[in-house]
Design a protein that fits this description.
Layout lengths: L1 H17 L2 E3 L3 H8 L5 E9 L3 H10 L14 E8 L5 H13 L6 E8 L6 E9 L14 H8 L20
Parallel strand pairs: 3-4
Antiparallel strand pairs: 1-4, 2-5, 3-5
Helix pairs in contact: 3-4
Length: 172
């Protein structure tokens, strides 16, 4: 069991950075969570069928390898959600909301979601939580996600920039 959790945990971190997915991360995202001080834990859960998102999240949260800790004290969390081609964004949202309900509202929660064709019908949630012993991580600079997305995807627009409109009259 511990080998599987470790394997899935490490694989989930690397997959989030190198595989294309619904929500991708880069090394800076991983570094943000992993640079927190204190103890860390890793949990993973996998489920299928109706309600698989919440079931997989609950399994990751209650992983037997973390029985001495709860996520309540974590200050940094990296959550990877992996599913087959049938993975839906609302399922990602359900899993993230389940994890969010278990942690400090001030915790830094970084989410990634990728697809893996070998998991058709299945959904896996992997959590890496840091700073479990209550130590505060060093303050980090604020990351402007829209700016980061625009830099990665030049065609992206959040429609927040208003542009003055002009009227044109066409005649024959």
């Amino acid at each position: 069991l511990s080998n599987d959790v470790l394997k899935h945990g490490v694989q989930s971190i690397t997959d989030l950075m190198v595989r294309p997915g619904l929500i991708n991360l880069d090394f800076a995202d991983v570094e943000t969570v992993m640079s927190s001080m204190g103890k860390a834990m890793m949990g993973t859960g996998q489920a299928e069928g109706e309600g698989r998102a919440v079931k997989a999240a609950e399994m990751a949260i209650s992983n037997p390898l973390i029985d001495d800790y709860t996520l309540k004290g974590a200050k940094g969390l990296l959550v990877n959600i992996t599913g087959g081609k049938d993975l839906k964004l609302f399922e990602v949202d359900e899993a993230v909301n389940k994890v969010r309900a278990e942690v400090d509202p001030e915790a830094e929660l970084i989410i990634g979601a990728i697809t893996d064709e070998s998991l058709d019908g299945l959904m896996r949630v992997s959590i890496v939580a840091t700073s479990l012993d209550g130590q505060q991580p060093e303050p980090k600079s604020v990351i402007n996600m829209v700016h980061r997305i625009q830099n990665r995807n030049p065609g992206y627009s959040d429609f927040s920039n208003t542009v003055s409109s002009q009227s044109f009259t066409f005649s024959n």
